[in-house]
Amino acid sequence: MRVRTTAAVAAVSSLALLTGCGAADMTKQASPFANAQGAKTVTLSVQSWVGAQANVAVAQYLLEHELGYRVDTVQVDEVPAWDALSQGRVDALLEDWGHPEQEKRYVDDKKTIARGGGLGVTGHIGWYVPTYLAEKHPDITDWKNLNKYADLFRTPESGDKGQLMDGSPSYVTNDKALVKNLKLDYQVVFAGSEAAQITQIRQFAKEKKPFLTYWYSPQWLFEKVPMTEVKLPPYKEGCDADPEKVACAYPHTPLQKYLNADFAKKGGKAAAFLKRFKWTTEDQNEVSLMIAEQKMSPEDAAKKWVDSHKSTWKKWLS
Fold first, then answer.
1. Per-residue b/e over 53-84, b at no fewer than 16 CB within 10 Å?
2. Which of 13, 65, 82, 125 is the most buried if burial means most Cβ atoms within 10 Å?
3. What value does the mean pLDDT of the chain take?
4. CA distances in angstroms from 27 to 45, 48, 302, listed in the order given
5. CA–CA dist 168, 83 (Å, integer)
6. 176 vs 39: CA distance, rounded Å
7. Model-wide pTM > 0.85
């Protein structure tokens, strides 16, 4: 998960994570196929949230089964992924939630990374409460009223303050600054990972308990646990420029793809395919749900989606 303007497994087939934004830093890892003489190989960066896993699963399946490539996937945190991409340790990043500093450094100045076009999905981070709580207390969905309800959200981890639950500390988040600058009586508590955050949300929902959480869309969990967004001060261009002074909502961010610059020029059919790879939020959620909720392997989920959406992906090949 992920945004300063927003704001993210050796192999994707072995992922047990449920889905948002963060993982171990593996920028030192390169594809085991990288030096295989004559091999047609592609290395894809995969973030730990399931939407990103869905992108990579489908791209990998088509690269392997339609274009004859060998594909390796490497999990890297959001910012280190840019370093890995610049160094050529990975060839492509299929879902970036907005990192303007890295974009300026690597795309505009060093020119070691090339823009790969839009993914077709718009991402948004926000604060959410369960809809059953919003229906009971309609004014709780305005940030100005959150202090009034702080006691509802207290947990052992948040002490005498209300808990604002975040996922992984590696996700790009403005939440600590927002709590401070909006003078909210809350403590940001990190679940540790998206999977742990989902487990906690589902447990709260099962018991119909109050919770306030950092969350994002697209995300399959909304289908299982209906949540309502809390209105923060409106986002305006530049309101999040200074991380310490942020006092506005997160933007809606068209998610972008990026390719290693050399790969973009010399990657042949694979590079052309990844540039054309573009699908909808509904497509991504369909695959995400199969992986996270139905416990299908990413490869099986990708195959099922590919088998039923030929008209969509055929355009990516030509």
1. bbbbbbbbbbbbeebebbbbbbbbbbbbbbbb
2. 125
3. 89
4. 10, 14, 26
5. 20
6. 47
7. no
